[in-house]
Amino acid sequence: MDLVDSIKKRRSCRAFLDRPVDKDTLENLLMLATQAPSAINLQPWELTVVSGEEKRRLSRLLVKRMKEMQISCGPGAKAPLPEYFVERERGLLNTMLPNLPDNTNFQDFINEGSCNFYGAPTAIIIFIDEVFSRARLTDIGVIVGYIVLAAHGIGLATCPIGLITAFDDDIKEELNIPEEKHVVIGVAVGYADTESPVNLSRSERVPLSDVVKWRG
Known about the structure:
- Helix content is about 40%, strand content about 15%.
- It has helices at about 5-10, 25-35, 50-70, 85-95, 105-115, 135-155, 170-175, 210; strands at about 45-50, 120-130, 155-160, 180-190.
- Strands 1-2-4-3 form a 4-stranded antiparallel sheet, with helices on both faces.
- The chain starts with a helix and ends in a 5-residue tail after the last helix.
């Protein structure tokens, strides 16, 4: 699929088919994604691919811990958000609510969905070594962009999952990850359930004039 077409059409998927992604396809995805650039070629990302019963067990653990800790998705802001950010968040809420099952609480759907990777058969957990400063998180952002676009290009659906960072210790213990590694983000990977109404939701993007300044 054409890259420009992928950029225009790719959206986060919140309902997946119960259909495994074979290892060859996942390896192809990661081969493409790890072509991402990084500062002085450090390639600081470390990826753990979790599928099958391992993924189901991890999901059960995260849902359990989320409820125990009363963790909830949020903007990660250090202060009250300016209204224009709130309006963007409200736009997502307004486009998703009509497509959720009746009597479904939006926040519960997002929280449990995130911990369950929205039912995707595979989760990619991205770690970074504690030797790096926060500056290298920019490299993680770049590879996540490559993952979601490459996945779309080969017929897979994705959803980045940030909530799981709250369960860093639990994830490392469950997956036998060394203590000096830290969870940055997860990505749900699988085949989209195109019959699910929730996947009809399309959040809008603000005009360039809201986010771009021109000089010269």
